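Request: Mind sharing a record?
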Amino acid sequence: MSQHPDPAKIRQVDHAIEPLIYRRWSPRAMTGEPISEEEMLTLFEAARWAPSTYNEQEWRFLYARRDTPHWPALFGLLVKDNQVWCQNAAMLVVILARKVFAKTGKPNPVHLFDCGNAFENLALQGTAMGLVVHGMSGFDFERAHRELKVPEDHDVVAMFAVGRPGDPEQLPEKLRQMESPSGRRPVKESIQEGPYVTL
């Protein structure tokens, strides 16, 4: 069975960071095997401890594990290209973000930022557990909002798939070609001291 490439052998960091960070990537090949209740709760526990403004914890997760009654509803939201590989996921999750502050009802300008923090915690935890965690935007946001009965004061932010690493050779050719950790531009191309000039 073909294995996923090792990010540590492909990615080169310019400054020393925790290996867990550059080992995290987003493969698509999964086995279809389930994850346990404990594994699932461990992932969400990691998300729980993300930083958030005024400890709002704006994130909400709507999940479905494969072969359960809720799976078809979440799977059906995906675009066809994502259904091709997500059919072997163990769990699909829709991320929601509460748009207003709980105490005042006023708009929270960083609700999406905070949900990103929670997802990154979860994705890093998944990497530490040897699981695939792949975030995506390829789904019907409006249908998700409507069919999953999402309240109006919440945004539908993204979806992600979780599973056990599978054989990339089982993917269609187009996806096999993408099944490798991507690089990143040099850090100095993303930062600017003082006002924005050109990045």
In short: The two ends are 43 Å apart (CA to CA). The longest helix spans residues 111-128. Strands lie at 59-65, 91-98, 132-136, 154-163. The chain has a mean pLDDT of 95.
